[in-house]
# Entry
Amino acid sequence: MFSVLLWIQNLPVFVSIAESSSIWAYPTVLTLHTVGLGWLVGLNTVVNLRLLGVGKRVPFATFERLFPMMWWGFWLNLATGVILFCLDANHKGHQWIFWAKIGSIILAMFLLQSERNYMFRGGECPAVDPVPSKARRYAWASLGLWWIATATGRLMAYVG
Amino acid sequence: MMALIVAIVHWVAHTHLSSYLRDIRWVWPLCETIHFIGLAMVVGGVASGYLKEARETGAL
# Structure
């Protein structure tokens, strides 16, 4: 494990990104990762807040279009996240908080898709107010997981 | 102008709030985390507002 992580980190492409002083190297990757976070977590938060009763004038159908956009945010974050991991693989690979972050993201993405299926695809959810309690549970769980993912992502710089 | 900025920054760095943020280990990470959650909510809120408008105007 140790040698694999070290080998990844020492690949020329990642060494050159890590050591580059260009604004188009590490700063751009990190910025895109933050943009992806805003896109994915932000849109998901909006959907969850609607399920919890915020902005009741906006019809549920409006939100279905947001789900593919959340996936764009996810793919952007996956791509930039892999690069960020590889730049410091040996350190991040040994941080428990990094794996907590990854675990919460996996669960949150699973929940995102389940929420979409429940709300728009299965015909289970009536898509009118009042929202069923199952939908509210989805919303709370999803919000909680994204907060954990965001917090653990930030805390990687300080913990572990 | 630069001297004024330096004076302001110096003053800010010596406020009680600044010392508090530096001295207590968990305060800064907590503020950063809340800042990121806020960022996500702003981006999500603005994006969905634009999308709603685009949908209403037939652009989407």
About this structure: Residues 25-60 of chain B form one domain. Chain B is about 85% helix and 0% strand.
